[in-house]
Amino acid sequence: MFKSLSTQSAALKAALWLCVIGLPFFATPAQIDIASQVWLAAIGAISLMLLTGYAGQISLGHSALLAAGAFSVGILTKEFSAPPWVCLILSPVIGALLGLLFGLPSLRLRGLYLAVSTLAMHVLVVYLGGEYETKRGYSTGIVVDPPSLLGFTVQTAVQWYFFLLFFAALAYLLVRNLTVGRAGRAWALLRTNETVASALGIRVDRYKLLAFVISSAMTSFAGGLFAYYRGFVSIEAFSIYLSIQYVAMIIVGGMGSLVGALLGCAFVTILPYVIEGSMAQLTFLSSQAGAIFAVNYAVFGILMIAFLIFEPQGLSGLIKRFLPKRSSD
Amino acid sequence: MRQQLALATILALGSTAAYSADTIIGITGAITGPAASSYAPAVDGLRIYVERLNKAGGVNGKQVKLLIQDDQGEPSKAANNAKKLLQDGAQIVVSASLSSTYAPIIAEAKRAEVPVLFAGSVCPKEVFPPADKLLFCTTAFTAEYDSRAAIDFVKETKGTNLKLALGAMAIPVSRGGIDFAEGYAKSLGMTIVDKQIIPPTAADYMPFATKIKSAEPDLIYSWAPWINQVRTFEAMRKLGWQNTFVTWGHLEAEEEMVRLKDPNLLVLGANALFFNGDLPIHKEIIAAAKAAGSTSNPNQLTEGWIAGLTIETLLKQIGSDNSSERIRSAMQTLKIDTKGLRGGPIEFTPTNHFRTTQYYRIYKWDSASNQITIPKNWFKYEIDPAGAGSR
Amino acid sequence: MQLIVNIVVLTSLYALVACGYVLIYRVSRVLNMAHGELMMLGAYALFATASGISGNPVIALLISAVLSMFIGLATYQVLMRRLTGSSVLAAVLTTIAIGILIRGMVVLIWSPQPQYPARLLGLENPSLAIFGDARISMLSAVLIGVTVLVYSGLFLFLRFGSWGIRLRAVGQNALLAAQRGINLHAVFAFAWGISTFTASTAGMLVAMDKGLDSTMVMIGLKAFPAALVGGLDSLFGAILGALIIAVIEVLLIQYVDPLLSDVVPFLVLIVMLTIRPWGFFGTREQLDRV
């Protein structure tokens, strides 16, 4: 029916958009919630893809940055009665500051010191969050009201779905523009060979830092959204495993590919529900106490290893292999 | 005759309209995940209770359908679970998980006007007077009253002229409880010589214990997750400190007391320990657990069992109309016979969804008789209806 | 006096764990993020051996130790080997994945309940009085002894053992070493084996002293500042780093605020990264000027 490949891919894109926009109208509330979680995670996945896939740096700091954004919203709301638009602008600023603070020491160095630096960031943020909660009496967490922006309150599941979808799309466009621009080219080069990049006059350290700061700001922003979406902020939600989940997203999705980030985040977010669903079919859930989360961990571990060893291009690489090749005309 | 038949048919149809099918209860709990060992038994307890209930014919001829979801202690999962349970028709949502999962569950349940029963995890302040219409709690422990009971017991047995050290874990709930204990003990005239807040990630408790020991306390009170309490205790003993250590009886407490065999470890609890094993209710639980092939230790199933008792009492009270509105209104005033599992009944009133009276016991190991004994049997605290104690 | 005892015990623990990071980093520049999990796996191996194979402490410990060395060798041979040659990034990511996998497997196989291997082995862990009024648990004393043994062994081995020399050679210049006929894969595998062995030993001792549960992986994380402050490729640095971090922790708990004992070591790490990223005794890394 469609002769040329570009029409085919355009049609595919249109179909995808139709599904994405139409989903809330025929899905159950639980499913809409899962989809919304995917869009929220997408922001973090895209920002991590920027840092690791493009600029080649490992970060274990996503959990801390999400926490920082969420707590910014919580603290600003409770202490200063700040309106949502202020909170949503300040949370990425806080993220950027954290990125600067923990990026500077480690990004001057060749090698993977950022991973260690972000571990330190994680420990510090967890400590600060816990202190705030205890000292201010929010031992079971900080409750946050639904945000009102421009007179419009985001409350229902469907509203949240589109709200989060909007920001995910925004994140995508932002990073896409960055990566095709000058910064993107610099990152591509320094990822492959820092010595060469430096010899060519690229300020390697500055570009690494830039990637980390932008990535951190985006992730913090996602954390702020998370606070409003859950209506709730508590430090226990932010463990190091959360950081690892984001790392899994970009590994599974395929590094260096924005589409990969989306695929990976959808996969990683939805997989636990799939595992749970299938385990419920197989065995009676409660008599297998201890099984499910461990299965999650094990499956994630195996998947990540498998992709790293056999398919570094991740899901996006797999898909590319199966797409029809352009005929040589 | 025909008229009577017609009338009967109409009546029958009318009552079937009011007759809804099974009662649906949803539970989201940390069945797996890092916190599972503290909460999974509660879920198991409820499951076994409901299974047994259904086998015996249910309540008023209706079965209780229990939908179980695992939230692994994660707020996002819990939110999703709540949505799923509600969309599957849950008329009560039970929660046995970390307090970080509460807010999303509460938000979802409120939207659907479905009551939430906290069974196994710390009671949120909204269940204390003036209670939120939809939130209820049957869990044994609660920071403030526990601390009050412990300190009062210390005052009773050792007076107030003593040096007390406090121990907590660096999580907000535990710290809140110990902060309260500090204030209360001071108000009674006790001297607080140290307050140790130990990070959950501590590799070695010796340095913390050393600090406490150097303050030379006469007594230590610790209110935190069990692992923290027991490690602090063991470290103190390793350092040669032999005085009294008062702590909360989590579900692991009974077994651990047997393992530790320490005559100066005092455990404050609100549940009846099983060593009493002759309590009919304990025999019941052990038998039911065995029949259901449960892998949990029966002496850890109490919280879940009490949730089961709560639900059965509620359903018996409302009779044949198990509609959601009826459930909601009936829960406001409920009296649950705990059959000896607690010191007395659990009573809800429209303003108090915690219980009107909280009962405590003190347990301790006795080396002479080689078993756990009860130095102080059930003593109680009336929950302040004005809501002064709301944590 | 008790403080000094506490410091020495904690130093030994961190040093024993840190030397594993150092060994692998030295030969391959890979940060093994699964080190904490491997430590935990070793402890569970002891538990499994004790409950399944033999209740005799000596036999159980020996079997577990050998087992853990094989686990290390196997981890390299089956997984990490395929990544040799590709970027270090991919290798480190793989270690993260391995860590998660181990966490899952451990709970699947043994349940999340805390375990007490010492009880299984019938080992008493009495509190010994030393130097007057200071106390130390017997197993903590054993830990100190083991750490001393391990480090002495490693120093001698690296200095004089033929494989030790190869290890050092590969660490200094892998290409040259390979050209001289050294089997790189064998050396890497060996490093992984020893690293896992030392980590497991630490894990087993901690498990017997205090108990075994999944929070043990945290020790692996906390040993990071120790390794880095000393220098990620220096064994001697690991001891020094462990000492510094242990001193900071214990003194903070005693005189300042116990909560800070978790955070400050990592702040020290950041400071170290800023002023002297290669630690006290590490080889200078190349620096890009900011």
CATH class category name of the largest domain in chain B: Alpha Beta
Structural class per helix/strand content of chain C?
Answer: mainly alpha
Name the shape of chain C in a single word. Answer: globular
CATH architecture annotation name of chain C:
Orthogonal Bundle
Mean pLDDT of chain B: 86
The CATH class assignment of chain C is: Mainly Alpha
| Total separate domains of chain B | 2
Q: Strand count, sense and closure of the main sheet of chain C?
A: 2 strands, antiparallel
What's the helix-strand series of chain B? HEHEHEHEEHEHEHEHEHEHHHEEEE
**Which sequence of SSEs, written as H and E, runs from N to C of chain C?**
HHHHHEEHHHHHHH
Sequence stretches where pLDDT stays below 50 over 5 or more residues of chain B = 6-19
* Intertermini distance of chain B: 64 Å
What is the annotated CATH architecture of the largest domain in chain B?
3-Layer(aba) Sandwich
- How far apart the termini of chain C lie comes to 45 Å
**Uncertain spans of chain C:** none
Percentage of residues in helical conformation of chain B: 40-55%
> In CATH, what is the homologous superfamily of the largest domain in chain B?
Response regulator
Give me the Rg of chain B, rounded.
22 Å
The amount of beta strand of chain B, in percent, is: 15-25%
- In which order are the strands of the major sheet of chain B placed? 7-6-8-9-10-13-14
Give a structural overview:
The complex is a heterotrimer of chains A (329), B (391) and C (290). Helices cover 76% and strands 2% of the residues of chain A. Chain A is mostly helical and 329 residues long. Chain A has a domain at 28-239. In chain A, the strands form 2 sheets. Chain A has a two-stranded antiparallel ribbon. The model of chain A is unreliable at 285-290 (pLDDT under 50). With 391 residues, chain B is of the alpha/beta class. Chain B has 2 domains: 2-141 and 277-358, 3-Layer(aba) Sandwich (Rossmann fold); 143-274 and 360-382, Response regulator (Rossmann fold), CATH 3.40.50. In chain B, the strands form 3 sheets. A 7-stranded mixed β-sheet of chain B has the order 7-6-8-9-10-13-14, with helices on both faces. Chain B is globular. Chain B starts with a helix and ends in a 9-residue tail after the last strand. Residues 6-19 of chain B have low confidence and may be disordered. By secondary structure, chain C is mainly α. Chain C has one domain (2-275): Orthogonal Bundle (ABC transporter involved in vitamin B12 uptake, BtuC). Chain C is 73% helix and 3% strand. Chain C has 12 helices and 2 strands. Chain C has a two-stranded antiparallel ribbon with strand order 1-2. The longest helix of chain C has 27 residues, at 2-28. Chain C is globular. The model of chain C has no long low-confidence stretch (mean pLDDT 86). Classes of the chains: A mainly alpha (329), B alpha/beta (391), C mainly alpha (290). The interface between A and C is large, with 55 and 50 residues.
